[in-house]
């Protein structure tokens, strides 16, 4: 079982460049999210989706775009990279069961450095 | 804005000791989750608690959801070196959005 697959694992960008972080899940989960993790700040929600064609902003959406054309894929686009976007990015997917909450599965992360 | 305060941020103990990590908020959550994360990896779900006052056990780990669903705790009995890692709590708000708000995390080091 692949679970949640993120690519690339590492990336170095120059300021102003754009790129897309890929995320795919094979569990038919309806919910998908993107987080960034910075030292001492836990995980902060960038964008999330409750199903194909539906996305919304999280806590720190500026500088990022998402789309969800299929249940499986949820790419994150950096429009014009800035050093402040140096971080570790995690994609996650979840089911939702009435009375049982959510069960998020995380990818292994993309370590992004913007110079 | 919903916030989750986790304490302590760092904990260094000897193998065999007990410990408790706290997760507190002024907001009510529909469910709360605990994750464990190892260096270079994504968080791994340990447990989800949904009902106020709920207690769940996972071997030596005991998770409790506060009666008012605003706080939670993770208690580890007789810690082992394999328990070393970053522990994160995360709360889900009302509504079926799938959004999780994470605490800052507790870094646990268990020394042999």
Strand content of chain A: over 45%
| Mean pLDDT figure of chain B | 93
Shape of chain B: globular
Per DSSP, the total helix count of chain B is 0
Low-confidence parts of chain A lasting 5 or more residues at pLDDT below 50?
none
Secondary structure tally, helices of chain A: 0
Main pleated sheet of chain A: 7 strands, mixed
Summarize the helix and strand pattern of chain B as letters: EEEEEEEEEEE
- Helix and strand string of chain A, N-terminal first? EEEEEEEEEEE
Please provide a written account of the structure.
The complex is a heterodimer of chains A (115) and B (112). Chain A has strands at 4-7, 10-13, 19-25, 31-37, 43-51, 54-57, 64-66, 76-78, 87-97, 101-106, 110-114. By secondary structure, chain A is mainly beta. Chain A starts with a strand and ends with a strand. The model of chain A has no long low-confidence stretch (mean pLDDT 93). The mean pLDDT of chain B is 93. With 112 residues, chain B is mostly beta strands. Chain B is globular. Chain B starts with a strand and ends with a strand. The chains are: A mainly beta (115), B mainly beta (112). Chains A and B meet through β4, β5, β9 and β10 of A and β4, β5, β9 and β10 of B.
In short:
The complex is a heterodimer of chains A (115) and B (112). Chain A contains no helices and eleven strands.
What keyword list fits this structure?
heterodimer, A: 115 residues, mainly beta, 7-stranded mixed beta sheet, 4-stranded antiparallel beta sheet, B: 112 residues, 5-stranded antiparallel beta sheet
Task: Give the SSE map.
The complex is a heterodimer of chains A (115) and B (112).
Chain A: E1 4-7, E2 10-13, E3 19-25, E4 31-37, E5 43-51, E6 54-57, E7 64-66, E8 76-78, E9 87-97, E10 101-106, E11 110-114
Parallel strand pairs in A: 2-11
Antiparallel strand pairs in A: 1-3, 3-8, 4-5, 4-9, 5-6, 7-8, 9-10, 9-11
Chain B: E1 5-7, E2 10-14, E3 19-24, E4 31-37, E5 44-49, E6 55-58, E7 61-65, E8 71-76, E9 85-92, E10 100-102, E11 106-111
Parallel strand pairs in B: 2-11
Antiparallel strand pairs in B: 1-3, 3-8, 4-5, 4-9, 6-7, 7-8, 9-10, 9-11
